[in-house]
Design brief:
The protein folds into two domains: about 80 residues, Beta-grasp domain (Ubiquitin-like (UB roll)), CATH 3.10.20.30; about 70 residues, [2Fe-2S]-binding domain (DNA polymerase, domain 1, Orthogonal Bundle). About 35% of the residues lie in helices and about 15% in strands. It is built from six helices and five strands. It has a five-stranded mixed β-sheet, sandwiched between helices. A hairpin with a 2-residue loop joins strand 3 and strand 4. The termini are far apart.
Length: about 160
């Protein structure tokens, strides 16, 4: 029997008090213990990016981080982007640019873009394109994702970022 550790994860502004094995990944804790299934699991090796979230505004592959390591951090998942029925500008850009098909990779792309623009609002388009190449999509051919990301970049340059939920 595995010993469990009591931790508190602050996700999208809400505290989740859970008990988990010390080696449980943050991705699994978010899905199984916090009920936040928007974080998808793909390769579980940090390669595909489907599980990308932000911790303290930095993009993180949640399949590579233990839940206990995230205690005390400000965790944000795709569920934290919208405010009720009001989508974030980034989510709306994805819709407007038809940047998703099956949608499996979409939460990871959204959180990668969100975290990147919060950390580096003055990033160049080429640098943003390079960062986005770290996430995999089998459906879209990336062009629409890149267009949505560039619109988000333009939006970030002209607005003051809202604090994370």
């Amino acid at each position: 029997m595995t010993d469990k550790t009591a931790i508190t994860l602050t996700v999208n502004g809400s505290d989740h008090h859970i008990a988990c094995a010390p080696r449980k990944t943050l991705a699994d804790a978010l899905r199984e213990d916090c009920g936040l299934t928007g974080t998808h699991l793909g390769c579980e090796h940090g390669v595909c990016g489907a599980c990308t979230i932000t911790v303290n505004d930095a993009p993180v592959r949640s399949c590579l981080m233990f839940a206990v390591q995230a205690e005390g951090g400000d965790i944000r998942t795709v569920e934290g982007l919208a405010k009720g029925d009001d989508l974030s500008p980034l989510q709306q850009f994805f819709i407007d640019e038809h940047a998703l098909q099956c949608g499996y990779c979409t939460p990871g792309f959204l959180m990668l873009i969100e975290g990147t623009l919060r950390q580096t609002p003055d990033i160049s388009e080429d640098e943003l394109d390079e960062i986005l190449s770290s996430n995999l999509c089998r459906c879209t051919g990336y062009r629409n994702i890149l267009r949505a990301a560039r619109r988000a970049l333009d939006h970030a340059r002209t607005t003051t970022p809202e604090p994370a939920a």
